[in-house]
């Protein structure tokens, strides 16, 4: 009798872990282009440092200043969303480069993803799918730039418009995909072939 061989399970992929950078934007961000014409975001950033002491306290160390860059779509989105003194978290990698102004090797952080630091930033999350975001009325998109007094009125209007839009888009009755219906209700289901 031949032994039955069980196929080996493929190893589960490891988590995609990258370097991160937590800091504060200290210069006015700029959006330029690379020599190849791709978008390039640049900002001088500050990073705070602390030393943990044996007695359980922290000692503040001097801040350090670094160059932060991002390319392509990340660069454009970062330029639109970030301003001087914003706290952020970024994912990416440290990279050495030759400074054109000094001729010396320097380091910069190349960000592949950005986010505001929730510990220092208050904001609201817009969970509207991207396709719908581009179709929002101009009044809704510009509400974020209005004065605080106008913002309350705009927020109430946006909330009402958002609710109306969700109601209009809601289907009368949601149907589960065929894969999630009970087996006896699936259309075109064949009985298993026995004895072949």
TrEMBL record:
It comes from Brevibacterium casei. Residues 1-39, 120-196 are annotated as: Disordered. Residues 120-154 have a biased composition (Basic and acidic residues). This is Single-stranded DNA-binding protein. It comes from the Bacteria. The lineage of its organism: Bacteria, Bacillati, Actinomycetota, Actinomycetes, Micrococcales. InterPro entries: NA-bd_OB-fold (IPR012340).
